[in-house]
């Protein structure tokens, strides 16, 4: 479903602020894979997602989605194949529009538009059905402006918008980091359920090692723009946080010192 071949990215090249973000990333993602990504600050996690989505152009290398070379394809063209949820609950939705209007936009992504009425009665009933499992009361507030929702409610809506068209790839960039623990757990559980229900191919960046181990069928660890660890299947299921810490120290020769990554 996704291939990254020798992908490199350097920001502010040739200046005092030069930053090598990705160094020859090679990654092959099979259809239905749910990959969790961990790593310290500046490891290249979010940059990798931006390379996949087309938000930033690659300096060199190859990006393929579903067998198609999209390396030079702009973000708005790739958008019809990619669902994305950001860390900031304010992103991914239009705050001045109603819940049902946001969902209508998501339902029509990549499709031809017309001048007919924006939200039909049947669509409204569908939105209620899709929102109900989140148990956040959103199904009864379809004509509420999104800006009036809590962070957790808004992130749940963003997640539904990102998956409602069953994208080729779902990118989750620390999408529960800004939420309180109870709400974060609920959004994570719904994320896992939606991925399994629709057999989505997903990549989730997280700062929580326990979540990285608990969710998905594959885990990768990044450091200094490189993938330093890639584990899947039963080996991943048997992992403990201490195993990841040891792997980091063996791979880098340094002690892991990122407090955010040690949250449990």
Structure described in brief:
Helix content is 33%, strand content 23%. It is built from nine helices and ten strands.
Q: Biggest sheet, in brief? A: 6 strands, mixed
* Radius of gyration, taken over Cα atoms and rounded to an integer in Å: 19 Å
Percent in helix: 25-40%
End-to-end separation: 32 Å
What's the count of strands?
10
Number of domains: 1
Q: Which fold does the CATH topology refer to?
A: Rossmann fold
- The SSE order reads EEEHEEHEHHHEHEHEEHH
Under CATH at level 1, the class stands as Alpha Beta
Strand fraction: 15-25%
CATH homologous superfamily descriptor: P-loop containing nucleotide triphosphate hydrolases
What general outline do the C-alpha atoms trace? globular
């Amino acid at each position: 479903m996704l291939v990254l071949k020798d992908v490199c990215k350097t920001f502010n090249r040739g200046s005092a602020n030069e930053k090598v973000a990705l160094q020859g990333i090679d990654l092959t993602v099979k259809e239905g894979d749910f990959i969790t990504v961990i790593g310290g600050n500046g490891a290249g996690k979010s940059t990798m997602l931006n390379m996949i989505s087309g938000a930033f152009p690659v300096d060199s290398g190859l990006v393929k989605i579903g067998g198609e070379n999209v390396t030079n394809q702009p973000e708005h063209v790739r958008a019809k194949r990619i669902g994305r949820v950001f860390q900031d609950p304010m992103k991914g939705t239009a705050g001045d529009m109603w819940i049902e209007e946001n969902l209508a936009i998501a339902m029509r992504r990549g499709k031809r538009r017309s001048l007919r009425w924006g939200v039909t009665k049947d669509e409204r009933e569908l939105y209620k059905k899709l929102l109900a499992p989140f148990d956040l009361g959103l199904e009864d507030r379809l004509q509420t402006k999104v800006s009036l929702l809590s962070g957790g409610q808004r992130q749940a809506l963003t997640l539904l918008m990102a998956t409602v068209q069953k994208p080729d790839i779902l990118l989750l960039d620390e999408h529960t980091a800004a939420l309180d623990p109870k709400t974060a757990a609920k959004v994570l559980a719904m994320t896992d359920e939606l991925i399994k229900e629709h057999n989505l191919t997903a990549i989730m960046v997280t700062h929580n090692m326990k979540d990285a181990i608990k969710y998905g069928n594959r885990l990768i660890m990044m450091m200094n723009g490189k993938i330093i660890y890639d584990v899947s299947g039963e080996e991943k299921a048997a992992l403990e946080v201490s195993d990841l810490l040891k792997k980091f120290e063996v791979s880098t020769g340094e002690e892991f010192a990122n407090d955010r990554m040690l949250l449990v």
